[in-house]
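Problem: given the chain below (163 residues), write out its structure.
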Amino acid sequence: MILLNLSKVYLFNRANILPGYRPDDFSTFDWTEWKFWEELDKLNIYGVGPDKTMIVGKSADNHISYVSNLIQAAHDHNIGVHPYTFKNDNLLFDYKFSAENEYEQLINLDVDEFFSDFPETLVRYLENKKCKEHQSEDDNSEDSARTLSLTLSLLSVILFYVQ
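Solution.
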């Protein structure tokens, strides 16, 4: 089996964003200025996997404190965004204790795929979203295609995990 052509995702969090570089405040960090994008391009990186709190920040009182421009900056470099780790617990109050509300926000922010400890929650959310889209007279085929793409990506991750 040749593994040379595997798609690569660069995982990072606040502690290992880049050797020797740790911004103190991601709420004002401009991801378009991140110098590592060019290095990722050279490494043929398919996507980045940031800690999800680097996209949607969490305040001390467990509310959304900021939304970064990481997704747009990655997409400007043709790099997908695959944040981690989505769970059914420890949700921000703004999500009203619903993991589906968290998925909704990140999909609306144009996240490409998810790392989740509870993939069945995402599958259920996408199935419900798909049913609602079919019931709507204003069915937007682009949204349907995106939902299908997210579903297929998730299923490929589940199949890989099961094997």
